[in-house]
């Protein structure tokens, strides 16, 4: 029985175990979902890569040489079977197992935090990796391209975001980036859909920073958030929330009719972002 410091999640992908292991490690920069909230430093992050073999690093890449922030160091490398690394940013150990099954390969991701240790994002792999990796396996099987994000997004606010999100999924056919919450009481959950490369977020309606209770908020991702912030103020823009870092850097504007806009820092790889 797993102790309270262990979390697991799994998914079946329709490729054999050797191919799944290679895709997971060699194509991490393709299946790791790009987006400002998915990196430690979205201002510089280009992608995530995995070096092969024991001693290899998992790196959030900041330059064209493939260097950046070390996320973890591999201590188990068993191609087609098992991968394990120790987080370099907190006290989390991640193990990924690849088990052949009738339909392909069962990929299980386990996060173990030592007693008294810190979890500052290292265990996020359990929450995101199975879903994102399975999505990538489907994309690569269809011969499609990568998953970069568009520069315009939208947040929709609902009194009951859970049922609204399930309606979007079941009736409209939108694909969530993570499993939808099955408990309507979990109102604070971040619910995210991708429509093509566009971002759609569903959140609980209520008072937000800067005041107001909006029903929808456009997101615009810009190349240089600080310059954009100063230019918007100089142009007479009404800043209702200054630059903050809540997993991503952003500030908020109010337009002439009282609608709220979120202006966020783009990734370097997001083409067509506003200046």
Which descriptors apply to this entry?
275 residues; alpha+beta; Alpha-D-Glucose-1,6-Bisphosphate, Chain A, domain 4; 2,3-Dihydroxybiphenyl 1,2-Dioxygenase, domain 1; eight-stranded mixed sheet; seven-stranded antiparallel sheet; 5 helices; 37% strand
Structure description:
The mean pLDDT is 85. The protein starts with 5 loop residues before the first strand and ends in a 10-residue tail after the last strand. The strands form 2 sheets. Strands 9-10-11-8-12-15-14-13 form an 8-stranded mixed beta sheet, covered by helices on one side. With 275 residues, the chain is α+β, with helices and mostly antiparallel strands. The chain folds into 2 domains: 6-141, Alpha-D-Glucose-1,6-Bisphosphate, Chain A, domain 4 (2-Layer Sandwich), CATH 3.30.530; 152-265, 2,3-Dihydroxybiphenyl 1,2-Dioxygenase, domain 1. The protein has helices at 17-26, 28-31, 124-141, 161-172, 225-234; strands at residues 6-13, 47-50, 57-61, 68-78, 82-87, 92-101, 104-113, 152-158, 175-176, 191-195, 198-204, 216-222, 238-245, 249-254, 260-265. It is globular and about 60 Å long. The protein contains 5 helices and 15 strands.
- Identify the overall geometry: globular
Helical/strand content category = alpha+beta
Question: How many domains?
Answer: 2
Find the CATH superfamily of the largest domain.
START domain
**CATH structural class of the largest domain:** Alpha Beta
Report the biggest beta sheet as strand number plus sense, adding barrel if it closes: 8 strands, mixed
Biggest sheet, strands in spatial order? 9-10-11-8-12-15-14-13
What percentage of amino acids are in beta strands?
A: 35-45%
Q: How is the CATH topology of the largest domain named?
A: Alpha-D-Glucose-1,6-Bisphosphate, Chain A, domain 4
The succession of helices and strands, N to C, reads EHHEEEEEEHEHEEEEHEEE
Mean pLDDT: 85
